[in-house]
Design brief:
There is one protein chain. The strands form two sheets. The chain has a four-stranded parallel beta sheet, with no helix packed on it. It is globular, with a radius of gyration of 13 Å. The longest helix is centred in the C-terminal third of the chain and has 6 residues. It is mainly beta. The protein has one helix and six strands.
Length: 107
């Protein structure tokens, strides 16, 4: 287990610019997480368990290596608090779920 995932009250986490290629499912324990900065890494996929991070308002995934469909349909409903999402410069993204249009709080 990652020690940082033992901090359920953590609200901000920046792991930007670290050459990270895997986000472990344990990130789902960060139930109070509001801002997650993962830009400029080597991430290809997000674990399905991230749907449990329902407090997220900011998610920055730009400049990674994301591929395939990015967000599972379940996440669309779970992440209704999102105000900012950045997925630019991920050239292998194939699709976004239609439900993303329901993220009405995006700025």
């Amino acid at each position: 287990d990652l020690a940082i995932c033992q901090l359920p009250s953590l609200t901000y986490l920046s792991l930007a610019n670290n050459k990270i290629d895997i986000i472990t499912p344990e990130v789902s324990r960060l139930i109070s997480l509001e801002s997650l900065e993962l830009q400029n890494n080597c991430i290809r996929h997000l674990p399905r368990q991230m749907e449990k991070c329902t407090a997220l308002t900011l998610l920055n995934l730009c400049d990674n290596e994301l591929e395939g469909p990015v967000f599972a349909d379940l996440w669309v409903a779970a992440w209704e608090q999102l105000r900012f999402v950045n997925i630019k410069n991920n050239d292998k993204i194939s699709a976004l779920p239609l439900g993303v249009a329901n993220w009405t709080r995006l700025e």
